[in-house]
Design brief:
358 residues; mainly alpha; Rossmann fold; Serine Threonine Protein Phosphatase 5, Tetratricopeptide repeat; 15 helices; disordered C terminus; TIR_dom; Toll_tir_struct_dom_sf; NLR-like; Tetratricopeptide TPR_4
């Protein structure tokens, strides 16, 4: 089996990985299983679970994976879609190959989750509803299609024959094949939250704190179902009411503004997201301080948005400042710090500067 992560080169040349596996912590088992299948088939893989070992530099590993692996394999699940770090990694891969000619981003769905925004345009490999053997073959077959750019069969197709008449009776469902399990968000959860929100609006009023809290709670099922337009409408209404009742600098108001900014980004409205993030960041710096976790998270979001708008120099300045503050407050090995370091490395790469962040 290929030792995928061991690609250190004393000559300083770029590492040579076929795949960088991007995943969130709850999907570690899936990430390891996928990585094992790939390495057993001869591919070189970088995966955090195996390659970020004691003594290695996490920042360099993360940057190398995103920048230099031929493909970023994103292990898609509902949890991954809500992860700011997963979001940063797949967006970096997409930005490096926005038209998909090199198939840099390879989404692999491990549950029946939506593919919102830009992810919706990228063809995925779906492993759910397969047993282990079928999933392994399905994964490797489609990985080969990704690398070659075609799904041409290895044997000639059969000559088409006249289709037989359809059966006169409805075929029975195969008894030995279980019905697929629906792992998508439960619409009843969304409905119950919507019912509660309607009740609170009638009894407490649309501007009551409890009503606004329920409106924010509804964002999760809407986002998980890929209903970003509906989530946007809800966030905009909630934000307007919070600004009027709590004030524009209240923590809840700023949290809603952040959520609206991410939703606008998922809808591809990066200019509007930028305006919202800039205002939120200014207010958080004044009320929470420049080193507060929420402030630094907003700075990260603004940096990615600037990158999506092609303003890499401005993104670099923001990432450098954020990274310095995170190293001082969170430590150099914190997940947030490493994510910012990765984002800075990607931005420097966009600017044609191949050295790592300071």
């Amino acid at each position: 089996m290929t030792d995928g992560g061991n690609t250190d080169d004393a000559t300083g040349s770029d590492p040579d990985w076929d795949f960088f596996v991007s995943y969130t912590a709850v999907d570690r088992e899936w990430a390891e299983w996928i990585s094992w299948q790939l390495e057993a088939d001869g591919y070189r893989v970088l995966v955090q679970a195996w390659d970020f070992v004691p003594g290695s530099n996490w920042q360099i590993r993360m940057q190398q994976g995103v920048q230099h692996a031929r493909h970023t394999l994103a292990v898609l699940s509902g949890a991954y879609l809500t992860s700011i770090y997963g979001h940063a990694e797949w967006q970096a891969a997409h930005a490096a190959d926005p038209h998909g000619f090199k198939r840099k981003l390879l989404p692999v769905r491990v549950e029946d989750c939506p593919r919102p925004g830009l992810l919706g345009a990228v063809v995925s490999i779906d492993l759910f509803h397969h047993d282990a053997d079928k999933a392994g073959r399905h994964l490797l077959d489609h990985v080969r299609h990704t690398l070659t750019g075609r799904a041409k069969p290895t044997t000639p197709p059969n000559f088409p024959t006249h289709r037989p008449n359809p059966p006169t009776h409805e075929p029975a469902f195969p008894a030995n094949e279980p019905a697929p399990t629906d792992t998508s968000p439960d619409p009843h959860d969304q409905q119950s939250t919507e019912d509660l929100l309607a009740h609170q609006r009638r009894t407490l009023g649309p501007d009551h704190t409890h009503t606004l809290a329920t409106a924010n709670l509804l964002r999760s099922p809407l986002g998980n179902l890929g209903e970003h337009a509906a989530a946007r409408t809800l966030f905009e209404d909630t934000l307007t009411r919070q600004r009027a009742t709590l004030g524009p600098d209240h923590t809840n108001t700023l949290t809603t503004a952040m959520a609206l900014g991410w939703t606008l980004g998922n809808l591809g409205e990066h200019a509007a997201a930028r305006t919202l993030f800039e205002d939120t960041l200014t207010r958080q710096r004044a009320t929470l301080g420049p080193d507060h976790t929420n402030t630094l998270t907003t700075a990260m979001a603004l940096g990615w948005t600037l990158g999506n708008l092609g303003e890499h120099a401005a993104a670099r300045t923001l990432f450098e400042d954020t990274l310095t503050r995170q190293r001082a407050t969170l430590g150099p090995d914190h997940t947030n710090t490493l994510t910012t370091a990765m984002a800075l490395g990607w931005t420097l790469d966009r600017l044609g500067k191949r050295h790592l962040g300071r």
